[in-house]
Amino acid sequence: MIPGEPRAGQLLIARDPGDGSYFDRSVVLLLDHDDEGSVGVCLHQPGAQPLPPPLMELRPLLTPPAEIFEGGPVNEHAVIGLAQLRRPGSHPKGWQPLFQDVGSLALDTPYEELDGHFSHLRIFMGLAGWGPGQLIGELLRGSWFRTPATPEEIFATPERLWQRILRRCGGQCGLWSTWTDTPSWN
After folding, report:
1. Per the UniProt record, which residue ranges are transmembrane (predicted)?
2. Does residue 72 come out as left (phi exceeding 0), alpha (psi in the -120 to 50 range) or beta?
3. What is this structure's pTM?
């Protein structure tokens, strides 16, 4: 996959499918990694929660499916917005770059100041988090594949995202994309 330290803009792709855990067949976008730990959001889990009333005006801007995604099991009340610029190189109010033309978006920015600036917007509730050294340990144990993210994958439909990204990676990773829910079929 990719050498070096984890960093914002990389995807973590779960390596052990079928274990039934929260991260089974998960794809996590890393938002931050440093000595204090790592944080990201799961890209593959549309949530059952409706948009809270303060965010309802953002519904027309949301990328389908226009709902809140479950970002992870940590700090489940944290709300994160990710947005892709419509015009690369611009810097709208409330937007902070993460990688390429994708960044985090302050969701308290007035709708009028957001409309027209973004080609994609997705909202996540909750985070995926790791304490100091925890993610590095999981990577060393082979729990995750790691690859650079693309804006298209961040805002893609969540169905079969795990398989699509593994296929893009090719090689040993691509083989994992053929994993079935019935291992005896392998």
Report:
1. none
2. left
3. 0.90
